[in-house]
Design goal:
The chain is about 75% helix and about 0% strand. It is mostly helical. The chain has one domain. It comes from Mesobacillus selenatarsenatis (strain DSM 18680 / JCM 14380 / FERM P-15431 / SF-1). This is YlaH-like protein.
Length: about 100
């Protein structure tokens, strides 16, 4: 059985099967960055500094677990889709608020 055929898109893109050390770090950084982006776009609130540090520490810790799952499962792809949906939502919300402010 060829493992390279079962890899997810990003795991294959980062060549986790050929160069596992660099590939896993690239996959981890991608997942961590996308997780932080999705958190900021969809869930972040104004918090004190210490609470924000704790939340980002847990995000990075969770990204470690997600990295191992993302080798064969589409975790990173799901985060990309979630980020795109939230970006579109934020843009539409901003346009709606701007249009509403112009009407008043």
């Amino acid at each position: 059985m060829d493992v390279s055929q079962r890899l997810s898109f990003f795991a294959a893109l980062f060549r986790v099967d050929e160069n596992p050390t660099v590939g896993m770090w690239m996959l981890y950084l991608t997942i961590a960055a996308l997780s932080i982006l999705v958190y900021k776009l969809g869930f972040a609130q104004k918090l004190p500094l210490l609470k924000s540090i704790i939340i980002y520490a847990f995000l990075l810790l969770g990204s470690t677990v997600l990295t191992f799952l993302a080798i064969f499962l589409p975790i990173t792809e799901g985060l990309v889709v979630a980020a795109l949906i939230l970006i579109i939502y934020k843009l539409r919300l901003r346009q709606h608020k701007k249009a509403e402010a112009n009407v008043k």
